[in-house]
C-alpha cells in the first residue's frame, strides 16, 4: 500500500516545532499517474477503526510527484514490546491529498530535514469511488499524520518535541494524538501542543498501545491539555518508575491496562479524571501510594489488583462503582476509608478479596450491594459495620474471615438478603439481632461461627441449609409468623434449648435442629420434612422431688406434648411409668443421677442427663463438631462453696483425658472422639463428657463429558470433572475415581456419574476428612453422555454386461474402528430388478438401532450393452484333407468389452473319413457358443471350402391357373418388399450328393430390387424376390398372407447354383453349363398343384396353367429373362 492511499494510514510528515521554520517555494516537476487502492485504517495497535464513522474505503488515482520521497511507517502489533523505528527521509516534502468516499479532503505531508528550505510539491488525488450518502450529518474525516524525524535522537534523552513522536491528527478539530515514539528515549514528556506542517494542534490523547512494551522508558510526564490515555498506552513498561500527572487538569479517562505491570511507586490521579479503566494500574509491585481526587466516579475491574505495597486507601466521595477485583490481592492494605458523604453504590465481586492485612471496615450508608467474595479471605479483618442503605450482601462476601468477631448490624435497616456463605467461618461472635427488613438468609451464611444467640425480625421468610450450623447458639430461638422455610441442618450442632414457631406455614426441613438441647417446643402448627430434631443432648440439675416428665419437658408441637414421648434406656435403677395421663420417674433412694433416651414420632429424639445432687460444681455434657473451637467455659455452668460463695472458672482446675485415658492439655477438636473433662476445686469435682463429632459433609461432583458409541463399555474422562466439598475445597480426581451409575455404560444415552470406591477412599484420605463424614450430594448433576455413533453405509456402485449374472451387491461401512466388525447394526443391500440395458438404483435398508445415526448413500447398478460376439461359417472339405482349423471356419470372437477373444474349436462330432455333414462347436472362455457345419465330401464330389448353410425351403404356394397362351404384356414393376426379419434356419436335411459339374460360366448377377448387387461370392448367387403383382381380384387378406409367407421364409427368396449331378425334371441346363433350379408352383385349392423343389426363389411366370407346353414355354421365357435376354427384341 502506498503512502497517502487512505485517510488513516500512517504517513511520515514534517514535525515543526516553535524553533523550526520553513518556506513554501514552488518547485516545478513532472508528474506521473498511478492507481492506488487502500483501506482506511487508524494507526493503532489494538483496534482496527476507521478515521471517521462515516468514512469508507476509497480507490483513487494518485498523482505522484517525481523526485518526491514516499515512506510507509509500519504499525506496531499490540503484542510487541517496542515501536517500529522508520529511517529518516532526505528528500523534499510532498503533499498528498486524498478524497474519501465522503466528499472531504484531507492532507498529509512528508517531512524533510530542516537544514534547507525545499520546495513542497503538491500532488492531488481525486477519488474515483462513489460517495456513500450518510443517513445523518457526517463530520469530515480527520487527516492522519505520523511524524518521523530525519535524524534519530540519541539514547537516554527526553522525548518532548513533536519530532520525537508519531502522531495522528484531526485537521477538523486541530487535535493530535500520540501514537508512538521515535527513538530510544528514557523520558517521555507529552507536550500540550505541537506544530506539524505549519499547523498547530492541541495534544488531547495518547493512543492505545502507543508505548506498549517499551523497555527504555523510565518516566512519563502528562502535561495539561491531555484528555485521554488510551488502552495499553504505557502497558508492560518494566522500567517505568515515575508517572507525573501533577500539571494536568484536563485528563478525564485512563484506559484499560494503561499502566499495567510497571514499577511506578506513586500515582496522583488528577482531579479531572472520572474513570480508571480495567487493570489500569494492576500488577505494579512497587505502587505504595495512590491519591484519588474527587471527580472520580468509576474504578474499573482489577484496576489496582495485586499492588502488594499499597497500605492505605482513601476513596473520594465521588466514587460510585468499584469494579470486580479492583483491589484484590493487595496484601498490604490495612485500612480503607470512604468519604464522609460517599456516593458509593456498588462494591464488585472480589473487590477487596485476599487483603489479608485489612483490619476494620465501615461501609458507607450509600452502599447498596456488596458483591460476591468482596472481602473473601481477609483473615485479618476484625470488625465490619454495615450501612443503612445496604440491601444485599453477596455470596461468600466475608467467607473465611476467621477473625471477624464483631459484625455490627445495628444500622443495616435496609438489609433484605444475606447470600450463601456470606459470613461462613468468619469467626462472628456474640448475639446477632437481624433487622425487620431481612427476608432471606442464604445457605451456610453463618456456618462455623461462634454466634451465641440470634433474634430475627418480623419479615423473615427463608433460612437456607446449614445457615447457622456449628455455632454456639443457646437459649431460645423464635421465628416470626412470616417464616416459610427453615432449611436442612440450618441450626445443626448448636445449644438451643427452646424453639418457638409463631406461624402456621413454616416448613422445617430434615435435621434442621439436630444436635441441640431442645426440651421446650412451642409450635402449634407446622410441617416437617424428614426428622428435623434428632440427637438432642439435655442436662438438668434438680432433685428427686422433680420426678415427673413435665419437670423435664415442655412440649406443644403440632398437637404433641411431653406425654407423647417414648422413654427408654433408663440407668441407675430408675424406671418410668405412665399412669392417669402422667409420666413419672421412679427414682431409688440415694440415686444422684440417671440418664434416659426419648423419641417422638415426628422426628424428635435425644438423651437426657438428670443430675439430682445439685453439686457445688455444675457442668454439662456436650457435643462439638470436629474442627470447631472448644474451651472449658463451653461446658461450665457454675460453682460455689458450701457457704454459698460463687466461684469463677478461673478458680477451678480443669483436666482433660482422651478416649485412651491419656491426659492432654485440651479437647482436640481436630480428632473426633470422646473426651472427659473434669472441673475440680479442693475435694469437689464434676466430670462431663465432650463428644467431638465429625461434621456431616457432602461432596458434589461437577462436570460432564461425552464420547461416541463404540460397542463396548466406556468410562468418563475424569479430567473433565471435579469434586466440590462442602468445606469449600475442591478435590482433583484421579484415574479410576469415577464410575457410571446404574446400567452398563455401553449404549448411547446419558448417565449419572458417581464416585467409585477408589474415589470415596481417596476423599476419605484428605486432611479435612478428619473433620467430616462425607456423603454424596443427592443433587449431583454430573453426567456422562454416550452419543450415537455417526456411521455411513455407502452402496458400492457396480455394473455388468447384458446377459451376465448379477455380481454380488456390497456396501462400504464408515464409522468408528471399533464398530467395523460389530454386528448390532444389520443392513441389506438390494437393487431394483431389471436386466435391460440401463441404470438401476441400489438402496440400503437397515434395522432400527438407538446407538447409531445412520447416513445412507445409495448406489447405482448399471447394465451395460454387451460387446461380446462369436461368428463363424460352415466349411467343406474332402475325405483325406487335413483337419480343419478355426480359421477354416472363419471364426472370430470378442469379449464384453469388444476386445478380441480366442475361439475354441470342437470337432469331436466330425468323422473326416466319411462323407457327411457334421456339427462343429465354436466357443469362448467367457461362455459364448455357436454351432457350424462341417461338410465332408468324397474325392469325386465337386466343391469344397466354405459354404453357406442352406435355409429350409418354404412350402411352395399353389400356382394360379394360367390364362390362355398369348403374348404376355410387359410385366409391371414389382413393388419393393419390406426387409424381412431373418430367422435362424433349421438345419436342413442332408442333400443328395451331386455329381461333379463342369465349371460353369459366371452368370450375370441380377439387380436386386433395392438396386444393389452382391458379387462377394461368385459361387453363391442370391436374387431378391420381387413381390408378385397384386391381382385386382385378390382379397386384401390373401395379399397379406402371401406377403407374410414371403417375408417369413428364406427358401422362396433365393436361386442357387446346384451341383451338376442334380435330379432331372426341374433343372434347366443353360448353354454355359450353368444349372438353374425351377421354382415349385402351387395352385390354389381349386386348381391342380404342381410341386417343384423349393431350392430356388420364385421367378416371374407367364402363360396359362392349363397345358404343359404353355407352362414350359413360360418357364423358358423366365429363364431367358434371368439371363437378360428379351425375346421381343433379340435373338438368342
TrEMBL record:
Organism: Companilactobacillus nodensis DSM 19682 = JCM 14932 = NBRC 107160
Biased composition (Polar residues): 1010-1053
Protein name: Adhesion exoprotein
Compositional bias annotation for Low complexity: 20-102, 125-155, 947-958
Chain intervals for the UniProt region annotation (Disordered): 16-102, 125-157, 938-1053
UniProt keyword list: Cell wall, Membrane, Peptidoglycan-anchor, Secreted, Signal, Transmembrane, Transmembrane helix
Residue span(s) of domain Gram-positive cocci surface proteins LPxTG: 1099-1132
Pfam families per UniProt: Big_3 (PF07523), LRR_5 (PF13306), MBG (PF17883), MBG_2 (PF18676)
TM region positions: 1107-1125
InterPro entries: Ig-like_bact, Ig-like_fold, LPXTG_anchor, LRR_5, LRR_dom_sf, MBG_2, MBG_Lactobacillales, Surface_bspA-like
Listed Acidic residues bias regions: 966-995
Amino acid at each position: 500500500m502506498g503512502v497517502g492511499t487512505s485517510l488513516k494510514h500512517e504517513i511520515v510528515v514534517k514535525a515543526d516545532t516553535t524553533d523550526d521554520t520553513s518556506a513554501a517555494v514552488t518547485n516545478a516537476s513532472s508528474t506521473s499517474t498511478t492507481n492506488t487502492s487502500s483501506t482506511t485504517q487508524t494507526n493503532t495497535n489494538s483496534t482496527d477503526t476507521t478515521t471517521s464513522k462515516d468514512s469508507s474505503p476509497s480507490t483513487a488515482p494518485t498523482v505522484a510527484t517525481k523526485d518526491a520521497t514516499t515512506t510507509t511507517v509500519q504499525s506496531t502489533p499490540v503484542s510487541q514490546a517496542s515501536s517500529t523505528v522508520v529511517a529518516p527521509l532526505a528528500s523534499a516534502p510532498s503533499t498528498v491529498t486524498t478524497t474519501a468516499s465522503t466528499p472531504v479532503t484531507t492532507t498529509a505531508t512528508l517531512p524533510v530535514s530542516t537544514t534547507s528550505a525545499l520546495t513542497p510539491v503538491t500532488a492531488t488525488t481525486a477519488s474515483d469511488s462513489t460517495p456513500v450518502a450518510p443517513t445523518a450529518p457526517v463530520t469530515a474525516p480527520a487527516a492522519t499524520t505520523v511524524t518521523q524525524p530525519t535524524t534519530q535522537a540519541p539514547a537516554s534523552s527526553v522525548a518532548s518535541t513533536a519530532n520525537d513522536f508519531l502522531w495522528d491528527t484531526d485537521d477538523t478539530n486541530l487535535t493530535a494524538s500520540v501514537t508512538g515514539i521515535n527513538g530510544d528515549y528514557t523520558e517521555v514528556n507529552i507536550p500540550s501542543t505541537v506544530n506539524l506542517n505549519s499547523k498547530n494542534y492541541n495534544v488531547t490523547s495518547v493512543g492505545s498501545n502507543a508505548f506498549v512494551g517499551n523497555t527504555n522508558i523510565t518516566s512519563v510526564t502528562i502535561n495539561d491539555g491531555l484528555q485521554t490515555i488510551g488502552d495499553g498506552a504505557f502497558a508492560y513498561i518494566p522500567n517505568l518508575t515515575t508517572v507525573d500527572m501533577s500539571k494536568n487538569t484536563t485528563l478525564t479517562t485512563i484506559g484499560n491496562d494503561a499502566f499495567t505491570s510497571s514499577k511506578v511507586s506513586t500515582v496522583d490521579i488528577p482531579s479531572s479524571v472520572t474513570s480508571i479503566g480495567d487493570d489500569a494500574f494492576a500488577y505494579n509491585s512497587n505502587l505504595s501510594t495512590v491519591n484519588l481526587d474527587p471527580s472520580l466516579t468509576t474504578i474499573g475491574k482489577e484496576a489496582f489488583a495485586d499492588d502488594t505495597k499499597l497500605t492505605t486507601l482513601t476513596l473520594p466521595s465521588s466514587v460510585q462503582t468499584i469494579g470486580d477485583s479492583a483491589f484484590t490481592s493487595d496484601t498490604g492494605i490495612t485500612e480503607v476509608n470512604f468519604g464522609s458523604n460517599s456516593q458509593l453504590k456498588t462494591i464488585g465481586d472480589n473487590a477487596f478479596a485476599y487483603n489479608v492485612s485489612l483490619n476494620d471496615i465501615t461501609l458507607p450508608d450509600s452502599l447498596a450491594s456488596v458483591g460476591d467474595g468482596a472481602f473473601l479471605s481477609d483473615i485479618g479483618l476484625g470488625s465490619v459495620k454495615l450501612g443503612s442503605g445496604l440491601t444485599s450482601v453477596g455470596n461468600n462476601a466475608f467467607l473465611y474471615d476467621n477473625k471477624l468477631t464483631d459484625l455490627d448490624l445495628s444500622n443495616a435497616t435496609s438489609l433484605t438478603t444475606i447470600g450463601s456463605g456470606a459470613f461462613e467461618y468468619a469467626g462472628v461472635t456474640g448475639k446477632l439481632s437481624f433487622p425487620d427488613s431481612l427476608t432471606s438468609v442464604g445457605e451456610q451464611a453463618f456456618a462455623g461461627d461462634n454466634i451465641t444467640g440470634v433474634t430475627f425480625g418480623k419479615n423473615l421468610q427463608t433460612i437456607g441449609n446449614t445457615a447457622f450450623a456449628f455455632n454456639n447458639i443457646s437459649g431460645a430461638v423464635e421465628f416470626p409468623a412470616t417464616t416459610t422455610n427453615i432449611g436442612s441442618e440450618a441450626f445443626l450442632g448448636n445449644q438451643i434449648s427452646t424453639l418457638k414457631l409463631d406461624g402456621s406455614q413454616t416448613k422445617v426441613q430434615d435435621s434442621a435442629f439436630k444436635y441441640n438441647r431442645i426440651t421446650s417446643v412451642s409450635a402449634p402448627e407446622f410441617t416437617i420434612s424428614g426428622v428435623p430434631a434428632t440427637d438432642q443432648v439435655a442436662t438438668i440439675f434438680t432433685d428427686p422431688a422433680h420426678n415427673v416428665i413435665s419437670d423435664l419437658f415442655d412440649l406443644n408441637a403440632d398437637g404433641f406434648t411431653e406425654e407423647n414421648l417414648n422413654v427408654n434406656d433408663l440407668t441407675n435403677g430408675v424406671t418410668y411409668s405412665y399412669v392417669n395421663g402422667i409420666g413419672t420417674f421412679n427414682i431409688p433412694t440415694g440415686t444422684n443421677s440417671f440418664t434416659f433416651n426419648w423419641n417422638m414420632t415426628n422426628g424428635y429424639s435425644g438423651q437426657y442427663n438428670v443430675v439430682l445432687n445439685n453439686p457445688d460444681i455444675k457442668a454439662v455434657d456436650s457435643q462439638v463438631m470436629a474442627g470447631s473451637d472448644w474451651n472449658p467455659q463451653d461446658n461450665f455452668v457454675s460453682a460455689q462453696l458450701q457457704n454459698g460463695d460463687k466461684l469463677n472458672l478461673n478458680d477451678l482446675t480443669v483436666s482433660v483425658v482422651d478416649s485412651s485415658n491419656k491426659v492432654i492439655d485440651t479437647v482436640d477438636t481436630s480428632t473426633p472422639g470422646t473426651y472427659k473433662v473434669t472441673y475440680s476445686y479442693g475435694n469437689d469435682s464434676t466430670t462431663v463428657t465432650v463428644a467431638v463429632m465429625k461434621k456431616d459433609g457432602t461432596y458434589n461432583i461437577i462436570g460432564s463429558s461425552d464420547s461416541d458409541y463404540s460397542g463396548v463399555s466406556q468410562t468418563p474422562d475424569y479430567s473433565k470433572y471435579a469434586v466440590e466439598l462442602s468445606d469449600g475445597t475442591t478435590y482433583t480426581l484421579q484415574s479410576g475415581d469415577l464410575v457410571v451409575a446404574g446400567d452398563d455404560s455401553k449404549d448411547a444415552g446419558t448417565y449419572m456419574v458417581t464416585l467409585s470406591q477408589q474415589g470415596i477412599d481417596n476423599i476419605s484420605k484428605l486432611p479435612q476428612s478428619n473433620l467430616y463424614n462425607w456423603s454424596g450430594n443427592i443433587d449431583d448433576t454430573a453426567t456422562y453422555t454416550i452419543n450415537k455413533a455417526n456411521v455411513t453405509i455407502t452402496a458400492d456402485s457396480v455394473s455388468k454386461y447384458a446377459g451376465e449374472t448379477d455380481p454380488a451387491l456390497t456396501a462400504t461401512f464408515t464409522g468408528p474402528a471399533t464398530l467395523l466388525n460389530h454386528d448390532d447394526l444389520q443392513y441389506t443391500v438390494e437393487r431394483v430388478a431389471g436386466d435391460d440395458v440401463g441404470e438401476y438404483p441400489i438402496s440400503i435398508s437397515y434395522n432400527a438401532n438407538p446407538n447409531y445415526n445412520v447416513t445412507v448413500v445409495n448406489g447405482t447398478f448399471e447394465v451395460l450393452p454387451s460387446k461380446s460376439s462369436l461368428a463363424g461359417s460352415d466349411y467343406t472339405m474332402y475325405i483325406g484333407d487335413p483337419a480343419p482349423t478355426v480359421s477354416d471356419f472363419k471364426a472370430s470372437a470378442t469379449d464384453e468389452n469388444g476386445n478380441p477373444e480366442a475361439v475354441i474349436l470342437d470337432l469331436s462330432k466330425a468323422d473326416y473319413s466319411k462323407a457327411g455333414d457334421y456339427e462343429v462347436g465354436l466357443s469362448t472362455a467367457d461362455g459364448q457358443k455357436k454351432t457350424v457345419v462341417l461338410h465332408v465330401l468324397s474325392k469325386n464330389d465337386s466343391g469344397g471350402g466354405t459354404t453357406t448353410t442352406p435355409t429350409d425351403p418354404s412350402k411352395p404356394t399353389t400356382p394360379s391357373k394360367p390364362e390362355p397362351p398369348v403374348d404376355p404384356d410387359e410385366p409391371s414393376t414389382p413393388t419393393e418388399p419390406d426387409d424381412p426379419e431373418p430367422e435362424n434356419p433349421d438345419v436342413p436335411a442332408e442333400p443328395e450328393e451331386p455329381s461333379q459339374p463342369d465349371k460353369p460360366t459366371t452368370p450375370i448377377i441380377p439387380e436386386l430390387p433395392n438396386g444393389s448387387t452382391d458379387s462377394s461370392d461368385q459361387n453363391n448367387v442370391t436374387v431378391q424376390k420381387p413381390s408378385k403383382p397384386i391381382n385386382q381380384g385378390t382379397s386384401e387378406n390373401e395379399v397379406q398372407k402371401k406377403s407374410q409367407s414371403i417375408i417369413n421364409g428364406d427358401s422362396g427368396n433365393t436361386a442357387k447354383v446346384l451341383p451338376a449331378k442334380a435330379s432331372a425334371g426341374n433343372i434347366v441346363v443353360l448353354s454355359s453349363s450353368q444349372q438353374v433350379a425351377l421354382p415349385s408352383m402351387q395352385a390354389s385349392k381349386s386348381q391342380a398343384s404342381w410341386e417343384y423343389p423349393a431350392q430356388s426363389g420364385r421367378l416371374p411366370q407367364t402363360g396359362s396353367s392349363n397345358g404343359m407346353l404353355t407352362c414350359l414355354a413360360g418357364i423358358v421365357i423366365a429363364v431367358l429373362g434371368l439371363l437378360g435376354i428379351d425375346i421381343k427384341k433379340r435373338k438368342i
